[in-house]
User: Fold these one by one.
Assistant:
Number 1:
Amino acid sequence: MEFNLKDMAKIVKGLEGIDTDADFLKREKETLIVRGFETGDAETGALTTPIFQSAVFSHPRYAEATGYSYTRAGNPTRLALENTIAALEHGKKAWALSSGMAAISSVLKLMNPGDHMIVSEDLYGGTYRLFSDLYAKYGILVSYVDTSDSKVLKNSVRPNTKQIFIETPSNPMMRVTDIRKAAEIAHTAGAILVVDNTFLTPYFQNPLDLGADIVVHSGTKYLGGHNDVLCGFVVIRDEKWIEHFFMNTMSEGAVLGAFDSYLLSRSLKTLAVRMERHQENARKVCDFLKTHEKVAQVYYVGDKDHPSYRLSRKQSSGFGAMISFRVKNAKAIPKILSNLKLIYFAESLGGVETLMTFPVEQTHGAIPEEIRQKLGVDETLLRLSVGIEHADDIIADIDQALTRSALRVQRHKESESNDNQVTIK
Ligand SMILES: Cc1ncc(COP(=O)(O)O)c(C=O)c1O
């Protein structure tokens, strides 16, 4: 199906007469997200796409079809969601899969044995595990490099490079890769650019508009937004990949179920308001962390002191709500995590609840020690997915956790030195 933004606007009553692209994009993000593309049910007038909880679809008679036969190949509830995601990402077509990892795996299957790919060295540990442990035996060669440095990226290209895969902002060090430049480098080399757009979502960043070929998502994160559904998406810019991704989902069946598709469609309606609130809170949390005496460094792309702040402004319409920060004393980390009252110590991101993660032991545990050390993913680093609770409550919880842990470390030190004194006596 062909997606044309201006045509889509005509579908939704009240969006007529949009002249400029900027005007359109702004209104698209706030109105089309709510109205979706193909939501509802024309026959009954239902506003919500029905949950077609059926694995099988019958045919009216021989040589006639409704368009559906078996849910692994297609399901109306899932298709409504896929069309909305394709529209939001400005792509030709999207597939909804059972997890972000299933989406990333489907993109990897575009590669042949002996093909080379360049991957952001700072990326989600599960993606590293998939590339290095699971796919290595199929002869796919992977170079992990700092893709935020365009020169390094360019110099990493080999004659057999077929794919550049980036996360931007990266996870957890919040490095930003210039998507336009990465696309140029990929295309000059005859390769494709794949962008994991999980952190910013199409609400803040549209990589396909910047030259990327394929976008992947962990829909489990902001798109789902409520920490209750595991889900992934792949979105393509060119219809030449339709066959590959259709065959992938049809043959393997790692598709999103009807009920989960419904939940995702429901969540997408509030994406704009959630992302705005996430971001507003993140700015406040970032400002607070930067002034805290126990904090050594803060990494947030929306911070004016972030080295890629200007690039972020250029290629994205917002900064999201992922923050990493470094504490001065690594010994305080177990106490900080145990002292949290409001914030969950948990391994995910993008939901309405604020989560704190210890990347070195959780999300990035699968990455070899020497790579982690090189990146700075060490025992002093914590990652925050800032939720939509009241910002003051999030800040108060971080403050009390940092302060109490520091007191305990201090007390521990004092009792150690008292013990020593006793021994000496
Ligand atoms: C940036 C990023 N991409 C992909 C994934 C994998 O997604 P899922 O957990 O939905 O399989 C994650 C999971 O944390 C992630 O953070």
Number 2:
Amino acid sequence: MTGFDFDVLVIGSGVAGLAAALAAHQVGAERILVAESEGIVGGSSRLSGGLMMGAATRYQKVQGIADSPEALFHDYMTLNQWKVESAVVERLTSRAGEAVEWLGDLGVEFYDQLVYGGDESVPRVHCPIGRGQAVVDVLYRQCRESGIEFALGQRVDRLLVADGAVVGIASGTDEITAGSVVIATGGFGANEQKRKELFPSVFDTDWSYYIGADGSRGDALDFTRDVNAQVTGFNRGLRLLHTDFDKMYEAYIPGWLVLVNSEGRRFCNETAPYGIMDGLMQEQGDSAFAIFDHKTLVEATELGVARYKQSIPGSTKRQSPHWNLDIIEMMLKEGKVQKRDSLEDLAGAIGVPTANLIATVARVNELVELAEDQDYLKDPKFLEPIVSGPFYAVEVRPATCCFTACGLRINRDAEVLDETGRVIAGLYAAGEVTGGVIGPRYVGSGNSYGNCVTMGRVAGQGAAAHVD
Ligand SMILES: Cc1cc2nc3c(=O)[nH]c(=O)nc-3n(C[C@H](O)[C@H](O)[C@H](O)COP(=O)(O)OP(=O)(O)OC[C@H]3O[C@@H](n4cnc5c(N)ncnc54)[C@H](O)[C@@H]3O)c2cc1C
């Protein structure tokens, strides 16, 4: 197209942006520029595990796993009680498998073993060798070899608009025009103000912290105001359970811990997938106590390997960074762990009804004897008695903000919609910057990466077609 500096401009160089740029090139866009605010390519995508969901892939078939996009759609929608943009999710789930294979064709290698992301019927999460960084590296290399240009250190702060259509971007006084623009700027987790405003349930104390990239400041939510872009998905994202010990995230708590609520009652299978655990914690007022005794803590420490429900291929098995004797003793001195010789005293220390805590612990010990969790169906291999004092209690909250999911509303072609629901001509968005795709329940590991790569491709293809 003549008259513009570029055919397609992409803002942000995470996997959503890289997939969009490369997909635009593959369907014929010739002049493509990716503008990136940081000095390095990859955003949160490069820090990520890179686990990616996708159904009916060749990788599943090799393993004899029978799956279908329809099954993924069903799981996704049921888990989210249809509180998502259904048509967008249909596009995502129908193309996610193809997107995984696309990455494979480009050079991303996956472990043979597929894993469960959450509570789905079959394993459909693909684990890239070299984690998210490897995926970013492959996509970036392919982009460069395709002649796609990159402008690092360019923080976009404005969209250029002509006759109601988006025709470019600006960073300060620098303006660049294009036939279409794809926003792939990631989430807003690094912006505390926006986190409070748009994702307030990340427990609003100084416990709350973010583990993604610095560039996730939510800029796009500001610079799309001029075009009246619609924002959806309030208070959505992923929160992981966290102690008040440090800012080091641990995706799961070890299975041997027993969680009780403020009533001193157990309320869940402690090995529930984190997407489910997030919602369970919300029901409990976002606070619970992990209870255990000294003997179990010593045994878990001596084992030297954290006992989680699932191991991810490629992850080096190691001691839990929090749930071991050294750390617990250290945190005891800081007042972040309660340790008492009797359960009565422990209940008093954490302010839960004594009779309830004693009864809960008695029931746990009964389940251990039965070798079956008749209450919450936790795998019996994780059942440990709580019998020999001293006894411990540690408060946990869903305070680790892993990513955010409130953002721009898009249709199934990844076009950005305005406040009235109309398409904003020339403007596309994909990945963590969008809302309504990730629902109130995170489907599981790979939900976000699946969304970013799949909808990134959809956005890139649409943006290229818009230029024609
Ligand atoms: C530690 C960790 C592990 C994770 N593991 C997984 C996992 O295994 N599977 C999974 O599905 N999800 C995982 N997630 C979540 C997932 O990785 C992210 O949601 C996803 O990578 C976001 O991709 P994105 O392309 O939308 O954004 P990003 O990768 O964050 O890229 C956005 C880019 O836009 C740039 N940008 C922002 N504003 C501007 C601006 N104004 N101008 C120009 N550039 C701008 C940013 O600097 C950034 O480089 C994990 C997240 C973290 C933090």
